Amino acid sequence: MRGKHGGNIYQVSRQLGVKAESIIDFSANINPLGFAPRVKKALASADMAILNYPDHEAYDLIHALSSYHNLPEEFFLAGNGSTEFIYLLPGILRPKSVLLVAPTFTEYEYSFQRAKGVVFYFNTREEADFRLEEKKLFDELKRGYSALYICNPGSPTGVLIPADTMKEILHFAAKKGTSIVVDETFMDYAEEHSMKAQVKNFDCLYILRSMTKFFALPGIRAGYLISYAKNIEKVQTKQGPWSMNAMAQRAGVESLRDSAYIQKSIQYILDARKTLVSELRKLPFLTVYNSSCNFLLVKLNRSAPLTAFELYEKLLHRGIIIRTCGDFQGLDDSFFRIAVKKKNENKKLITELKKMLSSDVSKKKKK
Ligand SMILES: Cc1ncc(COP(=O)(O)O)c(C=O)c1O
Prior knowledge:
Layout lengths: L8 H8 L7 E2 L11 H8 L2 H5 L7 H11 L6 E4 L2 H12 L3 E6 L4 H5 L6 E6 L10 H8 L5 E5 L11 H14 L2 E5 L21 E6 L12 E5 L1 H10 L7 H12 L1 H23 L4 E3 L6 E6 L7 H9 L3 E2 L1 E2 L10 E5 L3 H24 L1
Parallel strand pairs: 1-11, 3-4, 3-5, 5-6, 6-7
Antiparallel strand pairs: 2-8, 7-8, 9-10, 10-13, 12-13
Pyridoxal-5'-phosphate (PLP) binds next to helix 5.
């Protein structure tokens, strides 16, 4: 794999010689409550799904998505994780120039390596807490880009661009003839800010959604695209046959039907995030950014006794993985990202961080 990603517990377990199950992985932003109980039940009797080809139209899932998002079925296309669409879109949009709002998910840039488009970055700034400064973005868009990519809420920053601002961006970009790809992988906690309803009004809009994070299905690969019906048809012709497997389709349907699990997950994560933020903010040397997601971007201040990479290594040897962020455009090696996990796991991380940040301080002072 070219890109560096969170969630590589198999590699870490080989490296440390420990069981993958014993690792606490704060580097992948997966719902700490796991997948929906209805998914477990459905996959326990999966003979039919295994013994037959998947429904290539993913009819049941599309139907379930349509009622979940309150949009007609023709606006949806199911796929092998949202990554499948990230890699299909450059071949469809064929942009000459692409503007990525950064820091952002690294796969967008990689997906353009095979296409001829030139990638440019619009950096949000640390001084502005990584909030989008829309006037500056509009000035940049005046140069005339073929496509604009925005991850909203942003990964790895956790910053949400409110719906009103997103609508202004849509209008501006549409006028300029710029296609817009909005990655809403982490929109589950702020659905009211989604641009999904706008696909009826803007044929230049492509929305990426994933069932990996909120519905905790990373290993099963389930994602979808929401776009203007004509765009959906175009993208579909570029997909391989049976791109979404039968188990993923079933898991997707059952996840969307499990409203008790959905409500419980949102409440749990918002609660756990609040506690985690407040505990982290009590620790020295850390700047914790506000987040609308189930993860937090943290900066280890320059006066800290160790670097984010040293912190990563120390935590790793205690069976804890965090995501260093030096590879993200617009960030440097003083940043790291942590997922909001189960409350007892978050507590363990805080305990370890407390020890590491203060024990290194005293060591440094003795020198
Ligand atoms: C912002 C963002 N978009 C898309 C993806 C890809 O998700 P999927 O598992 O649906 O391919 C990820 C995964 O890390 C992500 O962080």
